[in-house]
Amino acid sequence: MRANTVRGFSMIELLVSLSVIGILVSLLLTGIQAARESSRKLECQNNLRQFGIALQNFASRHKAFPMGEDGKQFPAQVHLLNDLDAGSIASKIDLNTVPNVGSNRGIVNLHSPTVFRCPSDPNADEMSCSYAACSGVNAMMLDPQQLAETQMVLPNSRVAENLGAFESKRAVRLSEFSDGLSQTIAFSDVMVGSQRQVRVGPGRPFNNIALLEQMEMHDPAAANFFAHRCAEITNQHSDWLLTFSRIWFEGGSNNYNNILPPNYRVPDCGRGIFSLFGVRSSRSYHRGGVNSVWGDGRVSFESNEIDIKVWRSAATRQGHETAPSE
Fold this sequence. Notes:
Elements: H1 11-62, H2 76-79, H3 87-90, E1 131-134, H4 144-153, E2 185-189, E3 197-199, H5 223-236, E4 239-241, E5 255-256, E6 269-270, E7 278-279, E8 289-294, E9 299-303, H6 308-313
Parallel strand pairs: 1-5
Antiparallel strand pairs: 1-2, 2-8, 3-4, 6-7, 8-9
């Protein structure tokens, strides 16, 4: 009689089986990661939706938006704390005194509300803010005096038409949104800086503002000039100080402009660490674009491929353009 034999796997069969299992596991992990990021993206959009509601509540009382940066260096986000159900934090801030001085000496110990932080951003911590106020398409968040001086020196400049929802040291009245609140972006995603100097290279997210003291004071409305300037600087400078939106109560680091498209391959650049002057773009860790909340509270996801003219028009409140609705 023929003896019964048990046939095992050959080496080739074993390798093929392991390969199939590996592929299935990788697909499963990819699906899990995609689901988690989708959840984080929805949470981020919900945060911005709360910003939109808070902004509407503030505007209904004051008939204006908060200052992009007030006279004491606080950003618009701080002025929305009470409307963001963060009254316990707001009660510990004296808006009549600059940060870290006198009654505000302990402000560095205050953590930003959870609604200030995008869960997709690995650098978003208790001291940061993931959502910046839109100052338009100017390379500066202008205050009234700077606006007047610019218009006097450059009478043909589009600086006034390029103003956004927020200005420095002045609250923009609702009546000034001639383009309409529904056509003007209020806040958008930004990447929080890591506070470390890193080398710019392919594949690195550009959550940075360059220390660029030699950037000349050109027409702040000349968006294309600054876009090209940042591209030139990228080829000359390799080290960047990542400070954008690093301190949630600091006015100078919590605004942005629509000079460059979302997540653009050219890094931001500016003059100084917390200066209001420079190219500061909307960027995120969400695949394909950024989240924005508009003046009427609507939240949208704006693609990286958005036409630059459309993107810039969405940032201005009186540019006489109409940005298409979602």
